[in-house]
Amino acid sequence: QVHLVESGGGLVQPGGSLTLSCAASGFTFSDYYMGWFRQAPGKEREFVAAISWGGAGKYYARSVKGRFTISRDNANNTEFLQMNSLKPEDTAVYYCNAARTLNTARQGMGDMTWGQGTQVTVSS
User: Fold this and answer.
1) In degrees to the nearest 10, what's the CA dihedral of 51, 43, 13, 67?
2) Among 55, 62, 66, 70, which residue's beta carbon has the most beta carbons within 10 A?
3) Which pLDDT does position 15 carry in this prediction?
4) What gap in Å lies between CA 122 and CA 91, rounded to an integer?
């Protein structure tokens, strides 16, 4: 059974930093792109970042490029999202998911059942 468990969210002031983690189980982690996605109130879920199987390829939404860094640990089936210089518009529930192709992730979709997500609130 697939499990995706996100953690690390919280309340942070503008300009602050957070690191999100995603623990995955129930599938062959290293066979998939891993991605981060977010959904703000009243909006559709959107692509944030993705990382290739071995970690060499990293892809970001234009809105977060230069501020967020995605990484993965295939030995422990975990991925991370380091978020710096956070802005109020980054406020959302953040989700992780796996995708067979980068195109799937870029469309805001994943191949696994979505987890509960972790809330990130950027506010003074």
Assistant:
1) 30
2) 70
3) 98
4) 5
- Residues counted in the chain: 124
Q: Measured between alpha carbons, how far is 119 from 18 in angstroms, rounded to an integer?
A: 11
Both structure tokens of 42: 């009243």
Segment 2-29, tens digit of pLDDT:
999 999 999 999 999 999 999 999 999 9
Both tokens of 59, joined, read 């892809």
Nearest residue to 83 (alpha-carbon basis) of 4, 5, 6, 21: 21
CA distance 60 to 66: 9
CA–CA separation, 78 and 103 (whole Å): 21
Residue 11 CA from chain centroid, whole number: 17
CA–CA dist 69, 84 (Å, integer): 8
